[in-house]
């Protein structure tokens, strides 16, 4: 019986991550196909990728850049839209934009001689908060798309000499992923 339970657990470890990944991919494909009303499976994803690339191309030239800057100004002036648009834009830029914010992994001593946490230095200077000797550190939560920004004295924060994607994988996986 113990061996049978062991086989079942091993099967779960192999099957569940693969099945959930396949399910998520199929869900994205079918939702995009249904949204765009295309008859060929997967064509919705292809159309979406081409559309996003086209937008990037247009935003890279002078005229397109001016048009998208106008849209940006419009969205940042509308009361409720501004909050949503700005938050989404900041998160996308933090991960993929020119002003990447999650590229400085660090380890922080939470209490003197106590536990440490892995995070990302997002602001080197907090003079606007009258905290000139402090830095802002973002701590993503494990298995979640949330996190907290905490402020620490600079001398309690030690930058890590690892790639930020490795640090993010380590934190988000709850310390399971990574070297």
SSE succession: HHHHEEEEEH
What number is the mean pLDDT?
80
Unreliable residue stretches = none
* Multimeric status of the protein: single chain
Strand content: 15-25%
| Morphology call | flat
Q: In percent, how helical is the residue content?
A: 40-55%
What count of domains describes the coordinates? 2
Distance between the termini: 35 Å
Number of strands: 5
The DSSP helix count reads: 5
User: What's the story with the biggest beta sheet?
Assistant: 5 strands, antiparallel
Characterization of the model:
- The protein has 179 residues and is of the alpha+beta class.
- The chain has two domains: 2-75, no CATH class; 105-172, no CATH class.
- Helix content is 52%, strand content 17%.
- The protein has five helices and five strands.
- It has helices spanning 2-36, 43-59, 62-75, 79-96, 164-172; strands spanning 105-109, 116-123, 134-140, 147-153, 157-159.
- It has a five-stranded antiparallel β-sheet, covered by helices on one side.
- β3 and β4 form a beta hairpin.
- α1 crosses α2.
- The longest helix has 35 residues, at 2-36.
- The radius of gyration is 22 Å and the shape is flat.
- The chain starts with a helix and ends in a 7-residue tail after the last helix.
- The relative contact order is 0.07.
């Amino acid at each position: 019986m113990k061996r049978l339970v062991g086989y079942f657990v091993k099967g779960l470890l192999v099957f569940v991550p693969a099945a959930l990944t396949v399910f998520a991919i199929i869900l994205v494909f079918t939702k995009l196909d249904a949204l765009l009303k295309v008859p060929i499976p997967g064509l919705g994803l292809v159309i979406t990728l081409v559309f996003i690339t086209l937008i990037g191309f247009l935003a890279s030239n002078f005229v397109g850049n001016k048009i998208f800057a106008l849209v940006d100004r419009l969205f940042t002036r509308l009361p409720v839209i501004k909050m949503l648009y700005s938050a989404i834009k900041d998160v996308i830029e933090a991960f993929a934009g020119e002003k990447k914010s999650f590229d400085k992994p660090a380890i922080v001593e939470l209490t003197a001689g106590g536990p440490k946490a892995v995070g990302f230095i997002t602001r080197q200077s907090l003079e606007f908060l009258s905290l000139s000797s402090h830095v802002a550190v973002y701590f993503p939560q494990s298995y979640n798309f949330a996190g907290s920004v905490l402020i620490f004295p600079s001398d309690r924060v030690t930058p890590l000499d690892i790639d930020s994607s490795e640090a993010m994988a380590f934190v988000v996986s709850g310390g399971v992923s990574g070297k």
